[in-house]
């Protein structure tokens, strides 16, 4: 039941007959005016015609009046008809309209390297990815959420190298597994870098010597900080790494053994990678985020899928010799028409896609091609969505271009990069390899501490504290357009009185508790439709917009549309309820109308919050 859509169709028919423009063109250009007194809907004439001297009037079932004002045709809706239609058919799933063209969709998100805890950058990826999954499922699509475990890269090999110097210890019970691994990884990496610079100093010129000394001093300062966290581990690692002639050679040997499926190496790597995944899941569970499938990069290597793609690439006419190894020439094999198909800017210089290292081992770029094949084929997906930071813009373009060149144009067209901006942390730069990051757990715990303090100050209820923390974090992420950077401000995101997840939950609890005290059986015929004026009419119009808002948020994959709508809706409801009573209204007919409006508010907020992964709370 999408009343706004039906009203737009009615208006399009009326306006089309009056000005002689195709109905569909008019329908696609009807918008919401900035102010309600300008109409509930409006058509800007310049968007459809150059003839502004037209006279349009008319009525429809949902349309009370149409009038021209300057270059706008303003459309006023019939609040009585809307009220009766909505509440004659109102149910628990109000507004959650299913797509007429459901798809099978894969959403890959988070996919963090299993070497240290998830940090604030992963937080945005995880919440955006999970929210997309929820939005698309609510819209009726068959969605498969996947996490790609990059267990074959250099970073994991560095971690395993460090663990080998510690004689493969088990994580202690008093520290989270991924945090423990992150410390060992950072220590190992810093010690390797210090050793490398120390060795290079022996053959450095004067200017180069000063530069390297300065860099080593910075690393030593970081090393001292890491040593304070576990002196025993650090000293053992330092002793064993410093006496290695060539740590890099040992790391490359670990990579080679794992990629070729050496039995002992497989057991060791998978064991510690699983510890990292355990830590990830523990963190993500606090935000109600889970996955359908975990894909391991190593499995794609061992299965022969990467080799199969490599053979196809080596037979391609686009194969070129690039810097001593093989690559795909994307620049000269993707024409302007194809660029348009694949959403690649016309003038963008496309670097070659390097297929392998000079030693014959494959690179992550080729493995991404193989993994894309798996995502499409495993789930028989119509669309694959990669939730990856904006820094991966070029690799994602290379991926689409490579799929096209290798003979899979449908995969290339239906592979979407859901790009997002980074999260800014004032006064701190993150570096996992140096052990400098603010983990997802750190953020969660800090938000929890602030929320608990604020609730206790207001003498509120803390029994649902974790759900309030979840709402604060999730709303802070999804209420901002993905392509914009976020400055994470804990004080703002925990505001209980405006523009936050807890504020939306508070508003829901307010509506829920009004309804919980209703003792009378509602009778729609008793509603006083003359009550539908001022804020009450605005609330009704906002309720009628919910199906369209939800549909647009899902179809455009823009959860911020829904988040902002829910915030504006909450503001409107709270403003009205602070001025007028509902249950205390003595006039039965007026009271009935107001209770129905609160019922609409409760239903819209409940469904909207659940779609965003936020739990509606009956008490706060």
UniProtKB/TrEMBL annotation:
Enzyme class: ligase
GO cellular component: cytoplasm
Keyword match Chaperone: no
Keyword flag Metal-binding: no
GO molecular function, one term: ATP binding
Entry superkingdom: Archaea
Pfam families for this protein: DALR_1, tRNA-synt_1d
SUPFAM superfamilies given in the database record: Anticodon-binding domain of a subclass of class I aminoacyl-tRNA synthetases, Arginyl-tRNA synthetase (ArgRS), N-terminal 'additional' domain, Nucleotidylyl transferase
EC number(s) on file: 6.1.1.19
Cellular localisation: Cytoplasm
UniProt-listed GO biological process terms: arginyl-tRNA aminoacylation
Catalytic activity: tRNA(Arg) + L-arginine + ATP = L-arginyl-tRNA(Arg) + AMP + diphosphate
Keywords, alphabetical: Aminoacyl-tRNA synthetase, ATP-binding, Cytoplasm, Ligase, Nucleotide-binding, Protein biosynthesis
Domain DALR anticodon binding: residue ranges: 504-620
Motif ('HIGH' region): 112-122
Similarity remark: Belongs to the class-I aminoacyl-tRNA synthetase family.
PANTHER family, per database record: ARGININE--TRNA LIGASE, CYTOPLASMIC, ARGINYL-TRNA SYNTHETASE
Protein name: Arginine--tRNA ligase
Species, as recorded: Acidianus brierleyi
Organismal lineage: Archaea, Thermoproteota, Thermoprotei, Sulfolobales, Sulfolobaceae
């Amino acid at each position: 039941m999408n009343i706004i859509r039906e009203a737009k169709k009615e208006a399009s028919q009326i306006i089309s007959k009056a000005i002689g423009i195709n109905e569909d063109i008019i329908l696609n250009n009807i918008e919401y005016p900035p102010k309600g007194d300008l109409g509930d809907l409006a058509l800007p004439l310049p968007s459809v015609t150059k003839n502004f001297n037209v006279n349009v009037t008319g009525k429809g079932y949902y349309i009370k009046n149409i009038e021209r004002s300057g270059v706008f045709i303003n459309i006023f809706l019939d609040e009585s008809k809307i009220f009766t239609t909505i509440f004659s058919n109102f149910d628990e799933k109000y507004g959650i309209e299913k797509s007429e063209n459901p798809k099978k969709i894969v959403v890959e998100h988070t996919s963090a390297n299993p070497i240290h805890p998830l940090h604030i950058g992963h937080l945005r990826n995880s919440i955006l990815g999970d929210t997309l999954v929820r939005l698309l499922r609510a819209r009726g699509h068959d969605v498969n959420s996947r996490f790609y475990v990059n267990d074959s890269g250099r970073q994991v090999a560095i971690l395993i190298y460090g663990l080998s110097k510690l004689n493969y210890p088990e994580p202690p019970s008093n520290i989270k597994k991924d945090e423990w691994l992150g410390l060992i990884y950072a220590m190992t990496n810093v010690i390797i870098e210090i050793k490398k610079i120390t060795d290079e100093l022996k053959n450095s010129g004067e200017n180069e010597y000063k530069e390297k000394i300065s860099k080593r001093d910075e690393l030593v300062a970081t090393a001292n900080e890491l040593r304070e966290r576990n002196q025993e581990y650090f000293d053992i690692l330092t002793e064993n790494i410093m006496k290695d002639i060539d740590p890099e050679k040992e790391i490359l040997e670990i990579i080679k053994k794992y990629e070729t499926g050496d039995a002992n190496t497989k057991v060791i790597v998978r064991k510690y990678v699983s510890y990292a995944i355990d830590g990830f899941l523990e963190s993500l569970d606090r935000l109600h985020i889970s996955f359908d499938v975990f894909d391991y990069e190593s499995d794609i290597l061992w299965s022969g899928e990467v080799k199969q793609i490599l053979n196809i690439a080596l037979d391609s006419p686009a194969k070129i010799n690039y810097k001593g190894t093989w690559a795909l020439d994307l620049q000269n094999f993707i024409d302007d028409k194809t660029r348009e198909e694949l959403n690649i800017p016309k003038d963008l210089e496309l670097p070659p896609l390097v297929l392998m290292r000079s030693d014959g081992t494959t690179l992550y770029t080729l493995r991404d091609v193989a993994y894309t094949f798996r995502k499409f084929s495993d789930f028989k997906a119509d669309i694959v969505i990669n939730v990856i930071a904006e820094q991966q813009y070029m690799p994602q373009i290379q991926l689409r271009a490579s799929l096209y060149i290798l003979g899979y144009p449908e995969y290339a067209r239906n592979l979407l990069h859901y790009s997002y901006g980074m999260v800014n942390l004032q006064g701190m730069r993150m570096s996992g390899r140096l052990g400098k990051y603010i983990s997802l757990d750190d953020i969660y715990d800090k938000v929890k501490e602030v929320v608990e303090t604020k609730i206790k100050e207001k003498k509120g209820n803390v029994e649902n504290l974790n759900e309030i923390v979840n709402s604060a974090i999730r709303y802070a992420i999804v209420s901002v357009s993905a392509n914009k950077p976020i400055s994470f401000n804990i004080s703002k995101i925990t505001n209980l009185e405006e523009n936050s997840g807890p504020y939306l939950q508070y508003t829901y609890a307010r509506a829920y508790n009004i309804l919980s005290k209703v003792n009378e059986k509602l009778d729609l015929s008793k509603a006083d439709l003359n009550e539908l004026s001022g804020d009450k009419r605005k609330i009704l119009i906002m309720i009628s917009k919910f199906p369209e808002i939800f549909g647009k948020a899902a179809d455009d994959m823009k959860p911020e549309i829904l988040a902002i709508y829910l915030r504006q809706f909450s503001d409107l409801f709270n403003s009205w309820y602070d001025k007028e009573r509902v249950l205390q209204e003595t006039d039965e007919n007026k009271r009935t109308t107001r209770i129905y409006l609160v019922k609409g508010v409760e239903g819209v907020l409940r469904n909207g919050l659940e779609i965003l992964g936020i739990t509606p709370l009956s008490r706060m």
